[in-house]
Amino acid sequence: MTLLTLLTGLLLSCTSPQQDAPKVKQLTPNEFKAQKLDNKAVLLDVRTPQEFAGGYVDGAENVDYRSGDFAKQMQNWDKDKVYYLYCASGNRSGKAAELMREAGFKHIYNIGSFSTLKEAGLPTEGGDTN
Questions:
Q1: pTM summary value
Q2: Nearest CA among 117, 116, 85, 113 for reference residue 99
Q3: DSSP string for residues in 68-97
């Protein structure tokens, strides 16, 4: 076997997608509303504490993705639970969800932005919830 053949084989084995790797699923606000949440479900608001104080979806836990210790905090979470993440636009929740997927979490849903969840009629608390 030549060195080139060996290197090509190693490269392909490292870059091939895994068949059983969990995927982050996207849910619309209405799809999220239809979910049956139980004690294995965790709703995470990954915005800053200041954003969270301005209003949040009822039952959400605030874990600031930008805090610098998100990855450290998630090491203590149960990887078998179902996680629903949202932020201000869906961008940070997407990044946080991807980080969780890479860490071995199996059931991760990005449900988008707080404003779209609120507009869809999900119950909210804090801030001006009218």
A1: 0.81
A2: 85
A3: S-HHHHHTTS-TTSEEEEEESSSHHHHHHH
Coil, helix or strand at residue 36: coil
Q: CA-CA distance, 129 to 35, in Å (whole number)?
A: 22
Q: How far apart are the first and last CA of the chain?
A: 69
Q: Look up tokens 């969270």; give the residue.
A: 52
Distances (CA, A) of 15 to 4, 74, 94, 96: 16, 26, 22, 22
Which CB contacts under 8 angstroms, 24+ apart, belong to 59-63? 60/86
Question: What tokens appear for 103 in the block?
Answer: 């860490």
**Enclosing H/E stretch for 17:** none
- In this predicted structure, the answer to whether residue 126 has a pLDDT above a threshold of 90 is no
Helical segments of the chain, H only: 3-15, 29-33, 49-53, 70-74, 91-102, 114-119
Tens-place pLDDT, residues 26-63: 999 999 999 888 888 999 999 999 999 999 999 999 99
Instruction: Give phi and psi for 20, each to the nearest 5.
Output: -105, 10
Token readout for 71 is 């990855």
